[in-house]
Structures are given as C-alpha cells and as structure tokens.
Amino acid sequence: MPPDSAASEAERVLRICSACMYCDGLCPVFPALAGRHAYPANDLNYLANLCHNCRGCWYACQYAPPHPFAVNLPTALAALRRESYAETVWPRLLGRAFRRPALGAVLIVAAALAAMIAIVAASGSPAALWRVRAGPGSFYAAVPWSVMAGLAGVSIAWAIVSMAASTWRFWRAIAPKVPGRALWLAAGPALRDIVTLRHLGGGGPGCNDEDIRFSKRRRLFHHLMAGGVALDVAATLAAAACQDVFSWPPPYPLASLPVGLGAVGGVGVVVGAAGLLALEARADRAPSERGESVLNVAFLVALEVVALSGFALFALRDTAVMGPLLVVHIGTVVGLFVGLPAMKSLHAPFRAAALLRAAAEQKASEGKEGARAARVLSE
Amino acid sequence: MPATADPWDVLVIGGGLAGLCAAISARKLGASVRLIESAPSESRGGNARHARNFRAAHGAPAWHSPGVYTADEFLSELRKASAPQFDEGLAQELIADTTGLASWLMDCGVRLQDPRVGVVPFSRRTAFLLGGGKAMLNALYQTAAGIGVVVGYGAEAVGLADRPDGGWSVEVAGAERQRIAARCVVVAAGGPGADPEWLRAHFGPAADGYSIRGCAYSNGHAMQMLIEAGARTVGDPTTCHIVAVDARGPRFDGGIVTRITAIPYGLVVDRDAARVDIESHDVGRTHYARWGPRIARCPGGVAFLILDAGALERAAPTALPAISADTIAALAGTLGLDADALARALEAFNAERSGRRHPLSGPPFFAFPMRPGLTFVHYGVAVDERMRVRRRDGGTVATLFAAGMIMAANILRSGYLAGLGLALAAVSGRRAGEAAARHAAG
Ligand SMILES: Cc1cc2nc3c(=O)[nH]c(=O)nc-3n(C[C@H](O)[C@H](O)[C@H](O)COP(=O)(O)OP(=O)(O)OC[C@H]3O[C@@H](n4cnc5c(N)ncnc54)[C@H](O)[C@@H]3O)c2cc1C
Ligand code: SF4
Ligand code: SF4
C-alpha cells in the first residue's frame, strides 16, 4: 500500500471505530480514540504503534467484510505501523527496507556474507581455519581478536546509534503534551506493561493468535524470545568482563557465566522465535498484513540462525569445524546487528514509546473532571 | 427433496441471540438440537451484532454491574416505556430470569467488560459485553458447537408443516433444499423490520427511504409463516423504534455508528431548506429516537443537520466525516438546497438565542444528511410463559415456541429501554429452549 493510502485507510477505519467504540475494553487504542475528531499524522503513527496486533477487534467487529464498511483495523494499523517505521527510521535510506520488507532480509544476508568474507580474509589463510585445535585462546587462533572485536564493535555501535536516533525521532513526533511530572509518573506503569506484555493477555483469555479462539501462546513465546535475547546480551557482557577484567580468554566451559547465560538465553530465543514463526505460519490471513508478516518472519529467522549457529559452535568447538563455525556465527551476529535498525526490531522501542505516551496521558487525566466523559453508544 | 428420517428433538430457526440461547439451553438438558441460520457464517448472529449492553436485575453489586437494580425497578421502568396493554405477568417472569443472565452467559464463554476498563459508563442497569455483541455471538456459537448443537448456515426456513406425531417438518431453502423433521420447533428469527415490501405495506411508500439499522436477514418471513399457521399476533405493525441516521450510510446493517447524535448542537432543515424542529431540545440520551419519526414526516423523508466548527467539536465523533464548505451558499450547493432559503433559516436560528444553544457562527460550515433509521417494529406473535405460540382461536401450540424479538411485543408495546432487546432475547430463548427440550423428552 502506498504511504498516503495507508494513512487514509487507517483514518477512515478509526473514524468508524471512534463512533462505535464497541472494542474499547480490548486494548488501549480505543480509549485513545474517545472523543477524537482529528487525525494528524503523528497521532496516527502513535495509534499504529499502540496496537499490538492481537486481532481481537477483527473477530469482534460488527463492520468487518462483507459489511460495506469493510473495517479491518488490525491490517489498517499494521500497514500504517510499517509506514511509521519507514518514515521515522534514521538514516532515512533504510525506509525502503520497511516499504519493501524483503529488502531488509537481503541487507542482513549481504552484511553477514560480507562479514564472513572479511573474517576469512583477515584470518590469513582460509585453510588454517580447519586446523585450529581446542583449548584456551583457540577462538582467537582462528579469528584474530582485533577482527572479531572490531567487526562486532562497529556493527553493534551502528545498531545502537541508528536505533537510538530512530527512537528519538519517533518520540519527538508523538510526545504527548503533558506536564513532565506525568511523564515521570508514567515511566513505572509503562515499563510494567512493556516487561509483562500485559496487553497480550487480552485481559485474561489472551489474544486471537491464530484464529477466532483465544490463546496466550504469543505472549509466552514473545516472553521466551525477548527474555532469551536479554540473557544473550548479558552473556556477551559477562564474556567481555571475563576477558578484559579477569584476563580469561574464551572459549569458556559450560559452567561459566557467559556460556551458562548464553545457553539458557539461546534456548529461549530458539524456542520463542520458533513458536512465533509457527503462529505466523498458522495464523488466519484475513487480519494479517502481508508486509508485516514478512518483517516478522525475516527477523525471527535471523534470530534463529544466530542462535542455532551459536549452539553449533558450542557443541562442535572441540572439533575441526570449530573455525568455520566461528566464522559463520560471527558473520551472522554481525549481519543481525547491521540489519537490526531496518528490521522488526524497531517495534520494541516504538511500542515502548507509544505505551509511555498512553501511560502519561492516563496519568495526566487522572483525577481530572470529565476524564471518563467519553460517551459510548448503546441501545 | 431429502427427508431426514429421525426427527430432531429441537429445531431452532434463527441463529441470533435468542436462537443461540434456546439451542444451548435445550442441548444442556440433553436434547438433540439442530439450528438453522439464514445468514452465511460471516454475517451470522442477527442484530445482537450491533448491540453493546444488556439490562439485568441484580440484588447485589457484581464486578461487571455496580450497585443494585431490583426487578421491581426494572418492571416499573418497563411500565413507563411500554403502552399499558402489555403482558405484565410475562414481563415479571422474564425480568426475574434476567437476574441470573450475566453468570449464565459467562458460563457460556461470553466475556463482560469491567467498567473500570475502557471508557464505558458505570451502569447499574446494564452490563457491557467486552468487544460488543459480535464477540458474544462468537463465544455462543463456539459453545453451541462444543456441546453438540448442529449448526447450518445459509439455511432459511421457508415452510412449516405439521406431522402426524405432533411434531413439525420444516422446509429449508439454501445451498441444499431439504426438509428437517423435529419434535419441537423454536422460531427465533427476529422481528419483521428488514423486509422492504412488508415495510411499504405498513408504513407507506416513504418506507423505501428508511435505513434498516439491523441485518437484512431478520425479515419477518418466519413470523409470517407462524401467522399463517394460526399464531395470534401482538402489538401494532405500524409502531416502531426509529432514529435519525446518516443518509450516506448503508441501506441495511448500519448499526450503531450511523446514528446522528449532534442534532441538539445545530440547525435542522428539510429539503426545501425550511427549519424543522421538535418541541423540546433535550440533549438527553434518547433525543435521536424522537428525531427519527420527525424526519420520516419531512418531505421526501430526508433532513439536513447544519453545524459550525464549534458545534462539530462539541458533538460526538461520527463514522462518516461531515460534509464541509467555506460558505453557507457553497454548503447549500453541495447538499442540493436553495442557498437563500438556507441562509434565511440560519439567520433566524441564530437570532433565536434560546437556552443553552450556541449560535452557528461559522464559516466553515458542516452538514450531515439524515434519514430515518428503523431499529425494530413493535409487532410479533403472542406467547405464553413457556414461550409456546398462542393460537388465534385460543390455546397454545405445545410443540411450537417463539423467542426473542419475534415475541418482544408481548411485553414492549411502544418505546424502548436500553439493553432490553438483548435481555429479552436471551431469557426468552433460554425459556423456549428448556421448555422445548422438556417437551421433546416427554
Ligand atoms: C442497531 C441496533 C443496535 C442495538 N443495540 C442494542 C443494545 O445495545 N442492547 C440491546 O439490548 N439490544 C440492542 N438492540 C436490539 C437487539 O439487537 C435485538 O433485540 C436482539 O438482537 C434480537 O435478537 P433475536 O435473536 O430475537 O433476533 P435477531 O437478532 O433479529 O436474529 C434473528 C436471526 O434469525 C435469522 N433468520 C431470520 N429468518 C430466518 C429464517 N427464515 N430461517 C433461518 N434463519 C432466519 C437471522 O439471520 C438472524 O440471525 C439493537 C438493535 C439494533 C438494530
Ligand atoms: S466493532 Fe469494529 S468498528 Fe467498532 S470499535 Fe470494534 S473494530 Fe472498530
Ligand atoms: S488488533 Fe488488538 S491491539 Fe490492535 S487495535 Fe485491534 S484490539 Fe487493539
């Protein structure tokens, strides 16, 4: 869908919803529509990121096709959400990866391959990779520390700078006009919503993960995946500490902090991402937006490849394939970080920003006369 | 035409709220139950799709319904709303049944909304469905299928014949024409509102301009079938609940969002740009229900609401954006009205300065074209306290039941109470289903 039509379709549908409001108990998008007459672009982008795509309002909608109003809020907001990433991402060139989501996958694969080639080139003779033996320092015998740290450092720095800039641009665009105090008070509740994925509980029975039945599987798998990523970040930090503070070079034994955290986190990522992929594959297509599905799948597959290559490296690190596996693992890690700012990963900070705004507006309106004045139609 | 050999204990005609409640109740008592719904599965469920909350008496606060709402209070409000000749004994029984309705629905998987969530008002009298009526219908269809009710979509009952054993043979049109035999039949096919010909016959040619707010499938043909089989009617086929709706909305199924609620903030004119008014300017919850009949009496059955930016801002959001123009003449042009006449009407309106009303100072100006939107007709078939259909020549039919909007006129002869439609459909459906299952069991 071209950008303007994503916004105008979302506005058309949201107007119907604002007059209807039958879904107001399903998620925070609807209370944010109460009494609303105007839909400026920034507010539309905010609403799009406030939607967690639970699809509840598709199955509940009295105006879904074949009704002539043809309301499909989940896909309208998903298309707009993708457009909001495309508009806001920094550097702007990356916007293309959201308008044509397959491009993002191409970028990661290209970056991963480039990184692998660079590593092989930097490690002297490729044949030597097959001859490295186990033991302390064996990783650096295969791939020099400077190459490994350099590539990882640069790609991670790129991901952090780009995603921070994109997030800042998004926040600047959607920041609510509330007193600083409300924002401060909102940080706690917003953080709780983010960490617990409260809204994915659907207020009890869960979301319409696959079809008209409710399920809590998406919440579970998302927790596993996100928790796994967090543990893997912790494992990397632990490894850096072992090496630089305690002068203990890798590889580390299973019972060490870096490998222990990494292994548990890796299992979380492998199982969580696989579960989310399975849900994506089985899900009813009607409330799914194709472009968003491509973004989801590309990101989840990238996570799987990185995690599985990490496990392979751990399992086979005492064998002759350790060297090549190390190259593949580092290459995919570098590819993931290079691609991160142009992938579904933007969802995390953007949704966090949207939840913060929702919580801040909630705080700012608390206690005010008429905070619940929004009227609901009923007969 | 194939004939199913073994009769079902209970055949339910109509898969709206009343039909689903009848089917589930009958099945829970062990009856074999078949339900036929004339709509395809995407459009199933009748008018409950457009409903939000149901009225229920409760003697103590519940998490979904604060405060207390006694059956006596319910009855006295019904007495005020309905014309005097309604069946008060039946009303009392059905109101008593609403006491357990919320928990019965929740047992069937229906989710209610916590009034602290979202933006629903705190309401003593009514409980709100989480996600609205369609979410409720989805849950009930799932429950019905889960306990073994056999549901057929796109299956319209078109004929009713009695069988020598006292049961019925129902002719069904649809993908497959067939006859279904049943010991008892529950007709829960809704009221007669959605048949354009029937409406024209009772409301005159102006009815062609009405929007039907509910679904096209609740067309009263099954009610006609009952009348032809000897059922006694109740109510008045020319009394109905009618509101002001956006004329740009669809002919059928516009539901709740096309209702125009901003009338108290602006000026209403007819197609000659002459001012239209009703006696009081009540911003209360039902003013639109008094505007419906008023617009129906306007020439051509249309009227236009004129607003300025301030008035639009004060009004509730609308599904379709207002028509706008920079001058009143341009607005008149867009609406096809006489520009001078509209300007004069506006001037007179602004000069009036009555009460709380703001003058329309514009530009820009905004407008909503309006037509009457029919919600339901106060007409149906007479039933006894077990929802057995009453005969014109006295007595009741032991094996024929009617539930929901098709029998609502027994207790609602005029007017309306918010949340009454669903409550009646559910409790009468349950009664009919249980009575039918008991009768079939012998
Ligand atoms: C716009 C609107 C808003 C409303 N809002 C509310 C509200 O907020 N609260 C409230 O309490 N009430 C509300 N109501 C009223 C309420 O929706 C109805 O009273 C209630 O749904 C009636 O249920 P029912 O099952 O008796 O009939 P219907 O809902 O009319 O269902 C009849 C069913 O029978 C099927 N059918 C018809 N003929 C045949 C046939 N020959 N063979 C097979 N199947 C057939 C139809 O397809 C339909 O599914 C509203 C009504 C409308 C129109
Ligand atoms: S029922 Fe449909 S139109 Fe109404 S709020 Fe839900 S999604 Fe929007
Ligand atoms: S899909 Fe879920 S989160 Fe998104 S708007 Fe609908 S109900 Fe809200």
From TrEMBL, chain A:
Question: Does Ligase appear among the keywords?
Answer: no
Disulfide bond among keywords? no
Against InterPro entries, the record matches this protein to:
Citrate_utilization_prot_B, NarG-like_sf
| Coiled-coil ranges (or none) | none
Q: Keywords in UniProt for this one?
A: Membrane, Transmembrane, Transmembrane helix
* NCBIfam families in the cross-refs: CitB (TIGR02484)
Name by which UniProt lists this protein: Citrate/tricarballylate utilization protein
TrEMBL record, chain B:
Cofactor(s) this protein cannot do without? FAD
Keyword check for Oxidoreductase, yes or no. Answer: yes
Q: Domain FAD-dependent oxidoreductase 2 FAD-binding: where? A: 9-409
Superkingdom is Bacteria
Q: Which UniProt keywords apply?
A: FAD, Flavoprotein, Oxidoreductase
GO molecular function list: oxidoreductase activity
Name the UniProt record assigns to this protein: Tricarballylate dehydrogenase
Q: What is the lineage of its organism?
A: Bacteria, Pseudomonadati, Pseudomonadota, Alphaproteobacteria, Hyphomicrobiales
